[in-house]
Write a structure and sequence with these properties.
501 residues, Immunoglobulin-like, Purple Acid Phosphatase, chain A, domain 2, 2 domains, 7-stranded mixed β-sheet, 8 helices, globular, binds fe (ii) ion
Length: 501
């Protein structure tokens, strides 16, 4: 346990500052989860950039996809598909597609490839689908073409009769496993309904250059939910917001969860098992995540994007054992997950390895450790953190990048001053739709914490989404942050290590 010291900041301000994961419930959440951290949400005033608001006016949250309709005239009926559509977990030949639809009419999916000019190519494919409990529709489509953009819609009604359709969705399949070309993708985290209609998400949805989008968790804030119905109600509020719907249908998704998909800073050892089961079920109900038949509860999984990138999606929340955290056997990821990550990173033939890591692994300044907050992240499980970083160092695994969320701030920093973490960078994506980390409202504090620390290249509490432009031949990564109006907040190119073999 580190000594409590507030770096010269008034104790009250610092106490609020470090507790960004302990969020005050919004007015809409009144009666929901208690504010475990005692954090009062700062007022949103769009001027300072220090409170997580926005730097200027946001355009409307509408996303218009410039794609043709593959359904041959079905009438778009938003009311029949109020939670929108999604695709996700793309491989080179497969993708999950998702919607929710509560009616009784036959439901099908129409999907068609589009060419580089945005025109429909080949012929439309129609798949009859079935609804699961709650009207949730998940379909794992096979037989897709690598490196191809698809447009899709869900359709109600029998063939040959007047039909209703969902909004149009779009996704891209991964390129062929041995291909190696440039990749541009986006990501964010922490999208609370208080920021509906989510103009930052809409801006990301309008950015056509993205091959896919990563959400690093706190995708929906479900605090206070305790059964299937209440979790569904929380997701519905988030999913039906225009900007969220727009992002979901604009790009294929790779998603994990963080704490708020269950409840603020929940402890897997003490959480009510029925509540945890309801939360996990709701996560799978509401996202296009492909489940492993042998381990259907697992969230961790990986995806190749040719030889350019491999994406390792972690579950940093659901398998940890907090009672072990100060022991040599600290379990932050379960043993199977840790071993899978190590083996996967070592075996990867991709130039860049992106670890989607909901809670940061960077060694943050001590003020972040003062409260219970350190218990929440890799630093609170030092043996586990050491194990993975030393393994990456010892095996000389090149170009591992950690893409994270949870802290309600943007950050680009090396993990440590010395050791293997000094050679790795973590990018905190977002927050995409929430208040900023209150550490930013203490005058001068963030400049002392980050601005004067050479490990940090960037820090901000403005709402944003992040774009990664990956060139595997250089190799290099450009990291850029954008706000709701696509104003560029930061952009820098980082050279990677050449990879042979
Ligand atoms: Fe969050």
């Amino acid at each position: 346990m580190k000594r409590r010291r507030f770096l010269g900041v008034a104790a009250g301000a610092a106490a609020g500052a470090v507790g960004c994961s302990d969020e005050a419930p919004s007015a809409a959440d009144a009666g929901g989860a208690a504010d475990a951290g005692g954090l009062d949400a700062p007022a949103i005033d769009g001027s300072s950039g220090g409170d997580g608001a926005v730097a200027g006016p946001c355009p409307e949250a509408r996303v218009t996809l410039n794609v043709p309709d593959p359904t041959a005239g079905a009438v778009e009926t938003l009311s029949a598909f109020a939670l929108g559509v999604m695709a996700g977990d793309m491989t080179d030949t497969r993708a999950m597609v998702w919607t929710q639809q509560s009616g009784n009419m036959p439901i099908s999916l129409v999907i068609q490839a589009i060419d580089a000019q945005g025109r429909l190519s080949a012929t439309a494919r129609t798949e009859a689908l079935t609804r699961g409990d709650g009207g949730f529709v998940h379909a794992d489509l096979g037989g897709l073409t690598p490196g191809t953009t698809y447009v899709y819609a869900f359709v109600l009604g029998a063939a040959g009769q007047p039909q209703q359709r969902s909004e149009l969705g779009r996704f891209r399949t991964a390129p062929a496993p041995d291909s190696m070309g440039p990749l541009v993708f986006g990501g964010t985290s922490c999208t609370h309904q208080r920021m509906a209609p989510f103009p930052v998400m809409a801006a990301a949805g309008r950015r056509d250059e993205l091959a896919f989008f990563v959400h690093a968790g706190d995708h929906a804030y479900c605090d206070g939910a305790n059964d299937a119905a209440s979790y569904r109600e929380k997701y519905a509020r988030h999913w039906s917001a225009e900007g969220m719907r727009g992002l979901h249908r604009a790009h294929g998704l790779y998603c994990t969860w963080d704490d708020h998909e269950v409840g603020n800073n929940f402890d897997p050892e003490t959480v009510n098992p029925a509540v945890f089961a309801a939360a996990r079920r709701a996560f799978f109900e509401h996202l296009p995540v492909r489940r492993d038949p042998a381990h259907p509860e697992r969230i961790w999984r990986s995806f190749r994007w040719g030889r350019t990138a491999e994406i390792f999606v972690l579950d940093c929340r659901g398998e940890r054992i907090p009672s072990t955290q100060s022991t040599p056997e600290a379990v932050y990821l379960s043993r199977p997950q840790m071993d899978w990550l190590k083996a996967g990173l070592r075996a990867s033939t991709a130039v860049f390895k992106f670890v989607i890591n909901s809670v940061p692994i960077t060694n943050f300044p001590e003020v972040f450790d003062e409260m219970a907050f350190v218990r929440d992240r890799w630093e609170g499980y030092p043996a586990a953190r050491r194990e993975i970083l030393e393994y990456i160092g010892a095996e000389r695994i090149a170009n591992v990048w950690w893409l994270s969320g949870d802290f309600h701030m943007s950050s680009v920093a090396r993990l440590d001053d010395t050791g293997p973490g000094a050679g790795m960078t973590e990018v905190l994506m977002g927050q995409g739709g929430n208040l900023g980390n209150p550490v930013f409202i203490v005058p001068g504090l963030t400049d002392r914490l980050f601005g004067q620390n050479p490990r940090w290249d960037y820090h901000s509490a403005q709402q944003n989404y992040t774009v990664f432009r990956v060139d595997p031949s250089a190799p290099s990564i450009e990291v850029a942050y954008y706000d709701c109006a696509d104003r560029e907040l930061f952009r820098r190119r980082y050279m990677g290590q050449a990879v042979t073999g």
